[in-house]
Amino acid sequence: MNMSDLSFEHVLSSQYTVFDGLAGMHVEDIYQDRQGFLWIATADGGVSRFDSARFDTFGLKDGLPNLTVMAIAEDADGRLLFGTFGGGIAAYDGRGFQVYTTEHGLPSNEILGLQAQPDGSIVVLTSTGVAWFVEGRCVRSITDVGGQPLERVYDMATDAAGTTWLATLGQGVISLDGQRIGIGDQIIQWPWKLAQDSSGHLWIAFRYTGTEALIGCYNPSDEQFAFISVGHGADRAAQNGTRHVRADKRGWLWLTHRGVMVHDGQEWYPFSASLPDIDFSDTRLTYEDREGNIWIGLWGGGLIFCDPTSIRRYAEVDGLPDREIRLLGEDHEGRMWIGTMGGMAYMEDGQILPVGPREIVSAMVVDGQGQVWSGGDAGKVFRWEGQTPQMIAVAEDPHSGEISGLCEDGQGRIWATELMGRLGWIEENRFTPLTGWMFEECRALLQDQNGVFWVSSYGMIPALYYYEDGQFRPAEVAETETIAYVNVLWEHANTLWIGTAKGLFALDLASRKVRHFTAEQFGLSANGILALTADLQGNIWMGTSGGGVLRYDGQTFQSIRLGPSALENKVEAVLCDCRGRLWFGTRAGLVAYQPGHTPPLLVIREVMAGTLLAAPEAVSCPESTPEIRIRFQGISFRTGAGQMRYSHRLLGHDPAESWSAFTAANTVAYNALPVGEYCFEVRTMDRDGLLSEVVSLEIQILPDAKTERIHALESVLRASDHVVHSQSWAMRQVMEQTVRVAETAMTVLVLGETGTGKGLLAQTIHETSTRRKRPFIQVNCGALPTGLVESELFGHEKGAFTGAASRQLGRFELADGGTLFLDEIGDLPLESQRVLLHILEENALTRVGGKQPVKVDVRVIAATNRDLRRAIQEGAFREDLFYRLSVFTLELPPLRQRQEDIPALAAHFAERYAQHLRRPVPTLDEGVVAHLQGYAWPGNVRELEHLINRAVLLCEDGVIRVGDLLLPSVGRQAGDAVPPVPAAGEGLDEKQQLVEALQATNWMIYGERGAAHLLGMNPEKLRYRMRKYGLRRPKTS
Fold first, then answer.
1. Lowest mean pLDDT: which of 253-262, 496-505, 858-867?
2. Which domain-ending residue is among 862, 891, 920?
């Protein structure tokens, strides 16, 4: 990089303020960390992190102890250290801040500077001295030199002679052994910054008042000090003098003084000119990032980004006849010719020289001999030899129109087309028109390698023609028939490239196959393609209408933005010269482009996997996580966030193991990943095709704890040969609740109609609990003999009543350490309810006839199909016992509310019973499922099971048909039909349900056609219920 290249007039610059997300406007320090993030310390708003796409701001709410941040450093562990003025040091590890103060040995909490040392320590500059900070503690500090307090220490540097110097408020520049730098007895007032150049000189930026830019220079070899003038005088006094000086990796010095001055070891050069609305008298510091970009921190003006190397712009001040560039070419001597709206110029040895008449250059071609030809707006073609062109008239009327296209044919002749339609060739400096060409608005002209002429028009459909057999014919090229505007024709690699207003077309001249590239499908920055060329590596470069420049490597289009304005990004000419340098002609001047050499960096910013994870090192989530969304960001400040391209893959996931095509999308989502281990990999490409290293993220999908428990529960249910995997949402909810309560010792109340599987659910809770190796005792409270309920449940002592010949343990004691299932709890007598409540509250019982309480450890699960709240109102059930039992309630849905489960249940029961009979498993005929789903199922799952068992016996040819189902809707004879009985949940109480079942079966209790079977109830239990409700078979008259 030459010093003459460093000027704000020739670099791409941007300003960032609080409106862009910057934490504050008074910048104190700038630092790029090892991940590529740029950190900006401000004196008025905390600290910001910039990834080229957005600013993340950290303040008091994030754990920063003070909003005045003076310095930034990075320790050996990658932690960012922020020196605050009043709050000590805040160390950020990517997740939070840890604060270090005087309690950890710091001389002061007012931090003025931080310097990372080669040994891993951090030098801390404070308002009372200097300290060395290692792994969270202060290992050494110096607060005075020669018995005098240091006060504020702004900087520290070691010169070529090995002497360490401090820039202090009270003692000027002083060494650790007490030496001072100055002139005679005059010390340097308020030295702010020290820097050592490549020759070993120590440079000192300091405060002073004056119009002359001065800096101190100390030579350690002869211990001489002098004030050096670094440039022209300023318009007004600089109250703060030279605030900052630094030496870059080349040994150049960068000085801030009402702008920026750069010293290359020989001379000082201004690195500042004019940016609108920016006052460079407030320049605080400069910083150079890993790509060579220059960042300028302003005191009150925010942050300035400068790209001093990749883009240099030339305008009229540099010698151009006009800043609107139309065409570019290179002659045989390596000179670049520049066609502008104001005439022709050429560049030689970095200098631009205008030549020829001051008129529009509308066409240009360089022939095989390296001779430059151009056309203008007066119907003339010029052949350039040095600065004196030779003119050839093309138009019949000099004022009729401009030359719109020039090309060379295979015979070395120059063909020219005039905008109003005149076409011909130039031979021996004479133009010969071609007859038969009658179209106006000609724009581009080309002869391909096969000798075929191609001509494009502008504003007509079709717009592309080729010359064959003495005639011009419309090009029969797919997708081009509707194109009205063709801007440029160019041949490369046996392909005709056609730049149009609707994207780029590529016609293979051998196969005639066409590819069409657009912004919508391929990510072009603009569809208007105005210019085409190739670089020495074979990459294709395109000028666009407002989208800057496009680079195409055969796989991916990369866009390059040449400035903030539309004129800077309308590119009508592109050229790669013989040295490989790239030149772009824009509406805002000539641009020299230097591709970068530093690959971009890449970070994974965040992952959404059920919860938001910021920059995780790995991700672990359950399989129930519906989506894993990963956001990543390539970091290349030169390229800009919007111009980065990304490619990714997911190893361990077959459909996604290959790399995706590069696109602008910086997020990717994966849905419903199965259990397993995966590795997500992503890479990014900058605008120059440079690739980052691959960044990876380990992803582990774990079996969901809840899902695992549900699977375990289903396994238990399947083992009991009663249930299949439920598709019912209601049943799934019950299963999830069952999983949760099974792990506890809570008392459970199971509600549900007859036949829904309350007993099975109780056994499942036991089998999936920690009590599964202890007894499971089931008691049907409704079937206990009257008068012996308490004896059966709680046991009795010898002689407790007549017939009690010995001690007997009750069901509670038999279930000790396990589970007691009290079925039909609603039928328990009131006195027994009182004793049961006492046992549940005290975990102890007293046997009938006994006096000493017996401790028991029993989990109680109760079940009923009765409405216990109604029973409480009727005085048949204790309210306090109800609340003690219903700590956790599970309500099983009736089968009529689980119709989606009927097909699987029917198939399951058919398979189970067929295996029991050692028969082939029958299939369900068409219509059977719909028939089953149309029934109310008062007996629920148990009734379905019995019905399918019967159908397995009756079916023929291994197929269960509708006729094999003994349901009333089958249409059998009236005497054989069993009408549906509404379930209790449909508005009928239990007594009414029993009555209708008995009436439907003609009061038959036993057998497959009896009411007990219909209700899915034990016949003895049904008889007990009939006695309870006083139900008797009516006498026949």
1. 253-262
2. 891
* Alpha-carbon gap, residue 122 to 116, rounded angstroms: 5
- Choose the final residue of a domain: 683, 702, 721: 702
Q: Is residue 336 part of a domain?
A: no
One domain, residues 696 and 710: no
Backbone φ and ψ for 71, nearest 5 degrees, come out as: -155, 155
Neighbours of 477 (CB within 10 A): 19
pLDDT per position as a tens digit, 971-986: 333 333 344 444 433 3
pLDDT of 728 over the 80 cut: yes
The number of distinct structural domains making up the chain is 5
Per DSSP, the three-state class of 701 is: strand
Q: Is 291 helix (H, G, I), strand (E, B) or coil?
A: coil
Residue 1020 belongs to some domain of the structure: yes
C-alpha–C-alpha distance, residues 773 and 485, integer Å = 84
Mean pLDDT of 481-497: 87
898: which 2 tokens? 């689980």
In this structure, the answer to whether residues 887 and 984 fall within a common structural domain is no
The pTM for the full model equals 0.67
Residue 722 is given by DSSP the state S
Shared domain for 855 and 713, answered yes or no, is yes
For residue 794, give Cα distances in angstroms to 194, 779, 810, 849, 853.
Answer: 92, 12, 4, 11, 11
Q: pLDDT above 90 covers what percent of the chain?
A: 50
β-strand partners of 749 = 862, 889
Tell me the C-alpha to C-alpha distance, in Å, between residue 1005 and each of 783, 872, 947, 1000: 17, 30, 17, 11
Task: Tell me if 783 is assigned to some domain.
Answer: yes
Quote the CA–CA distance of 256 and 238 in Å, as a whole number.
11
pLDDT in tens, 792-839: 888 888 887 877 778 888 889 899 999 999 999 998 888 888 888 888
Same domain, 605 and 571: no
Domain ranges, residue 690: 601-702
Cα separation values, 566 from 211, 525, 537, 544, Å: 39, 12, 29, 11
Pair type for strands 27-32 and 336-340: unpaired
φ, ψ at 634 (rounded to 5°): -80, 140
Q: Is 410 exposed, middle or buried (0-12, 13-18, 19+ CB in 10 A)?
A: exposed
CATH code where residue 921 lies: 1.10.8.60
Report the relative pairing of strands 351-355 and 495-500 from DSSP bridges: unpaired
| 908: number of Cβ within 10 Å | 19
Contact status, residue 72 vs residue 29, Cβ threshold 8 Å? yes
Q: Are residues 548 and 492 in the same domain?
A: yes
Q: Which residue has the tokens 């520290």?
A: 156
Assign 895 to helix, strand or coil: helix
